[in-house]
Amino acid sequence: MALVKPLDPNHDKETKQLAEFFNETLGFCPNSVLTMQHRPAISKAFINLNKAVMANEGRVTSALKRMIAWVSSNATGCRYCQAHAIRAAERYGAEQEQLDNIWEYRSHPAFSDAERAALDFSLAASQVPNTVNADIKKRLYEHWNEGEIVEMLGVISLFGYLNRWNDSMGTSIEDGAVESAETYLGNIGWEKGKHDGSQY
């Protein structure tokens, strides 16, 4: 059971309207957002930030943004966000080989050097202490411009918030997210962990 129970999707009219965004990205409104509704200003601000961060302004595709989110969530250990990120990557057209081999992005031929630079940036920026360094910067600038790097760090930072929120809350994971995680991550050990609704 989660630390705080999610509220009904109809609890706050403005949140419900904004949350239609997630019907495209995930196919459902996440329990994390339904929990944030206990303070609707937080749920609304979060959804608007999410929409801004995930907007495509350059060459950083929707699929790559979700893979960046997955690497970040994997680094912090949040299984809830790992499942959501891989599901959204799938829904936004990530290549099958990439979805099947996301754990091996550094060496698998399905990933380009530009994608590897972005995903290594996500890993370095998500660690504590942070390990972004001159080499990461050099590799990023070989493939991406400043605006695109800002977009990437927006995703990493957004998921830093989500990783802390969902792991601290023990947010119960939704069936659709479980299905995607078991499909793409189950063979390498993904499980619900604290998000199965039985803890706390």
Automatic annotation (TrEMBL):
<dbReference type="InterPro" id="IPR003779">
    <property type="entry name" value="CMD-like"/>
</dbReference>
<dbReference type="Pfam" id="PF02627">
    <property type="entry name" value="CMD"/>
</dbReference>
<dbReference type="InterPro" id="IPR029032">
    <property type="entry name" value="AhpD-like"/>
</dbReference>
<protein>
    <submittedName>
        <fullName>Carboxymuconolactone decarboxylase family protein</fullName>
    </submittedName>
</protein>
<feature type="domain" description="Carboxymuconolactone decarboxylase-like">
    <location>
        <begin position="40"/>
        <end position="120"/>
    </location>
</feature>
